Amino acid sequence: MLAAFADWIDSVRCYCSASRFIWLLRPLVRLNVRAVPFYLRGAACPWWLLIAMPFIIAMMFLVKKVRKRFNLRATIAMVIISEVMLICWVHHAVMNQEWVYNKARILGPLFWGIPIEEPLIYYWAPQVFVVATMLYIHSKLRKSKRKALYASQGN
Amino acid sequence: MPRYFIESVCFFWLPSILMYAYVSRLMTRFKLEAFYINFLIWCLITFVFEYTCLSLDIWNFSEKLYPLIGINIFGVPLEEFLFWFGAAVFFPLLYLVFDEADMKLFGRKRNKRASVWICKGEIRHARRLRGLD
User: How many domains does chain A have?
Assistant: First the structure.
């Protein structure tokens, strides 16, 4: 009974011990000439760039809405910190194979071992988008509250 | 050593706790509410985004050199969510810290637009009381 329970625990642990995507990936991992680990699977299509497009359009729309509330100096400082921190971290993570990119899904050029889409888009646009969303929600909350207050005073 | 987990905690969550401790005292109720709502929205977005990226097979995880901690949510390691959710906390807090620093160092006025709005509202209210509107 106990042995069966231990077996069951082991099987659960085996299933939970790693992502179910990993066993598919491991035999495919290679190193390119600059010793950057990657794998190649599926038809070539730059999904990593394409998937960012709707976000960028939404971000531009939202930033336009809250542009007067944006503190430009704080935003620039945040973007610089984000770029530097994430480039160093992701370079380190890619080289240590913490995560590995599919060469068929990125544009191709690498910046310090990182797909070029990341420093060009992903290290500043989502950050600005997140802050813009927060400022938009803040302005909506404040406006609704003030309108309610004004309506109550008016009545 | 679960390096990805440690890096997510050290780079995103620990600085976020420190920044939150600093910024939360200075934030208004609405700003705090906006921060929490924003966090929930971005948790949802990044959750969907993560599964979309993995189903498109853009990147994947390798435990060749360093293991993951071993907990996964529908096949995705917990570290990945620590990364995405951590980013949704870390970057708004970083912006708020810089915003506060900007106000202190460069003397930028707080809630400039809000004060204009209040003035307009008060004027309109006064006009209404006098029967002008």
Answer: 1
